Input
Amino acid sequence: MTSVSRRQALRSIAGTGLLWAGTGASRAQRDGGAPSDDALTVVPRPAEMAPTRAAYEITDETTIMFDGSGAFHVATALADLLRPATGFELPVDRPTGSGTDTISLTLDGAPPTLGDEGYRLGVTDSGVTIRAAEPAGLFWGVQTLRQLLPPSVEADSERAGPWTVPGVQIRDAPRFDYRGVHLDVARHFFDVDAVKQYIDYLAAYKINHFHMHLTDDQGWRLMIESWPRLATVGGGEGGYYTQAEFRDLVRYAADRSITLVPEIDVPGHTNAALASYGELNCDGQPTDLYTGTEVGFSSLCVDREETYEFFDDVIREVAALTPGPYVHIGGDEAEELSEAEYAQFMDRAVAIVQNYGKRPVGWYQVLNADPPESTVAQYWNPSRESSLLEAAADAGHELLMSPGSRAFLDIKYNEGTELGLSWPGFTSVRDAYTWDPGAYVDGVDESAVMGPEAPLWSETLETFDDVEFMLFPRLPAIAELGWSPADETDWSDFSERLAAQGPRWDILDVNFYRSPQVPWPGGERSGGI
Amino acid sequence: MTSVSRRQALRSIAGTGLLWAGTGASRAQRDGGAPSDDALTVVPRPAEMAPTRAAYEITDETTIMFDGSGAFHVATALADLLRPATGFELPVDRPTGSGTDTISLTLDGAPPTLGDEGYRLGVTDSGVTIRAAEPAGLFWGVQTLRQLLPPSVEADSERAGPWTVPGVQIRDAPRFDYRGVHLDVARHFFDVDAVKQYIDYLAAYKINHFHMHLTDDQGWRLMIESWPRLATVGGGEGGYYTQAEFRDLVRYAADRSITLVPEIDVPGHTNAALASYGELNCDGQPTDLYTGTEVGFSSLCVDREETYEFFDDVIREVAALTPGPYVHIGGDEAEELSEAEYAQFMDRAVAIVQNYGKRPVGWYQVLNADPPESTVAQYWNPSRESSLLEAAADAGHELLMSPGSRAFLDIKYNEGTELGLSWPGFTSVRDAYTWDPGAYVDGVDESAVMGPEAPLWSETLETFDDVEFMLFPRLPAIAELGWSPADETDWSDFSERLAAQGPRWDILDVNFYRSPQVPWPGGERSGGI
Output
């Protein structure tokens, strides 16, 4: 199996040609003096990857060289990653001198076929070179380099080397332009440091969109300066992000090639707003704050002009805070409204988002309001049958694929999982991996799919340890579905590479679920899921 | 004296008319039941200020109301200022309810004559209202309100009230659009927290430009990503700001209505750069790092193309980091260059700054290169005679006034001052106050003066305590010269208001010089300076 999938890894990505025909290594070569691919456990699997006989050892003589605007940030990110465990100085510099003993990050000379996020990574005896057309490509190449090094590179204090990068030639680019992960900070609030940690996890697996569910019945988590009580009252006991904190998060994500997608969920899921300002309710009276887990009971008053003044102010501020192209406006489970009322509201809400230069995203119910085709619809029903989605794709909408039974990271792994929900059943690690975002909904062609997104709802998750337990190891599964070529996503091969992540998570002190489906190093396999 | 100067304070600022004719109070009224002006010790003195019989006590019922885009930031700044000492909740909200028991910050209804920084402040029995046309005006109004409250409002933990704002009507706007203070972080480095503290001090006295001297022979203090060794090597033992840290400082200043003016001093004062990159030297060899205090010995190689590539890269990055209109390029004491070489370099340097959309500023020697008239020249020679400056003003240049014997905050107060330099003599507090930035250089009309700027060089200042000792109490002197009407700057009146700042600085733990020229509360006056 492994030898077959390694060979498959050498097949070209569409249109870019075959680079290193015939150089593929396999486990069968391991004992013959040929390069071993033991170290090539990269997740997501690169599009093309070929072991070579070369290898480069990072030492105290190694310099990190960069060229091109935007490469410096990536170079310092790499230095920051390598310095604690290696203890080496690893100076960051522009190209000078011999070019030996260097890790070079360069924006020159990458073939345009690599696109905005692709990269090439090559290892010789004298160094490592990563080339890309854009800084994001370099950054993803650095994440690959990180996984080529021993797990101890993740340590925050000095460890024994050697720090050998195995010989490999990689040519890589993602399958989908949008690879998203979501976090619900409304049901339970997570502070700036926790969210930064979460962003770090996404970056390591080449996720490039971070969707923050900022508002819900239970809490409004972002200061809106023109309506401050949304946060100071609607944030309840849990808290909220100041705009300075939120800008800090936006930048922290951007520094890691991740676009933040803010969600303001309307017209339902709005009790926190309704409790903050009486004028958003049809009777003019503020509701009580709510901390339960029911859904579908709240709605903005669609007949009051204050509702649209409120939403315009909110979207103006949110749009100003987030440079990315998307603003998510929820639109799910507005069960208090008739279909006509829902459409009446959504028509204006979508126009407000567009007016501030942003592209609207909504949970798939937004399609019921027949929004303009630039509106992105996020599918989350676990069913593969959806005439609504099929019609939307035909009409030109782009879709995000988040099927509840596959991509929801807050679903219990099995009946023994204490945390999480189980409304679509259970979602084992294998379940999270064995579906195709490009072919999930019957009648929807891959060309209409922007990519997969994995939501993580927090009704049952009170601590960041809880979050980690649900995120790992399913995050890398969704990440690989979004990045790697469809015909390379083989569960058996993936589960072995996934197992190799375990020691990294141990060193990073990640509270991950040791699913018995995965052959963790040193562990016994059992029959569980 | 005091009664005269109070009456003068009611005179109109140019073109805005007299507001409250005949309501001026004086110390003579103190015992007659009329309003006392004891509390009206605001520095800089407002343009028009009239005591009234009203007074408002801030209580736990007080709300801070705001309206208009940008007013929220100021409202939260006020709340953050008042909450620690008062212990009150002081909710910040948009206008609702009765409007009583409120401190209102409003951008509606201000007369356009108040300009970009002016404000009106009124006190009634039911609250305080500050109006301005722009957020900066509101922010300066808040600084005035702060000084109307007892010194204990500066405390960082709860103190006894009452928190009474005395009755007053103020109409205020600055004399000069540019009121600057400088800090040399090159000779000695001050970290981000220290610089933020410094910015807080400037804001309290309505300084609106903060000039950072970022590079000199002894250190290069800002990471330039295309030339990283400038900071990693040229920063020496002292250190440097990462670009993220510098952006944080830019924003911190902007949140306080202060524009950061970055200085990259060229072609002299560049040993730190010359030590970082050999190619900037005519012999191609890097110099040694330098920690002494001599000047005039270093220069970029004006005949090498690398010099201009370097400067273009540096200014591109600096311009991208700082949204303000100015980039300062030094230009002082390039004693290694001939006049022709200096002009050859400066022609290109000025063009590079303009190419990145910024307005060049230079120390006045830059005028020797005959730069375009949009170039701002900063005067620092202590002499009042300067044909160079007179000609420049005639040619249309704008000037910053920083005479070494008046505005340099690092000059010794007297022969007993341990810290500081004395090349232009000594500068007592009174010396720092008794000059006119609009009429200092013979033959230069006020219309050519952008404003005063007070440099603080750090050759002898190793700690932030040292910085504070030189800054206080001369900072408020320069600040008042920049803000208050020229005919209101009376030393005797000022020294009494300055004395009232002492208890605030004690509470803030500021290490200030208790100049015997100032009648500090509780102190004996002596004959010293």
Observations:
- Chain B has 15 helices and 17 strands.
- Residues 180-507 of chain B form a domain with the TIM Barrel fold (CATH 3.20.20.80).
- Chain B has two domains: 3-172, 180-507.
- The first strand of chain B starts at residue 48 and ends at 58.
